[in-house]
Amino acid sequence: MKQVHNKADVMAWLVKAQDDLRFAESVLNDTFYSHVCFICQQSAEKALKGLIYSLQEDFSLAEIRKLKTHNLGLLLKLAKQRGVSIPQDVNEACAILDRYYMSTRYPDVPDPIGLYTKEIAHEAFAKAKEIFGFVDNLLQP
Question: Residue 8, exposed/middle/buried by CB under 10 A (0-12, 13-18, 19+)?
Answer without folding.
Answer: exposed
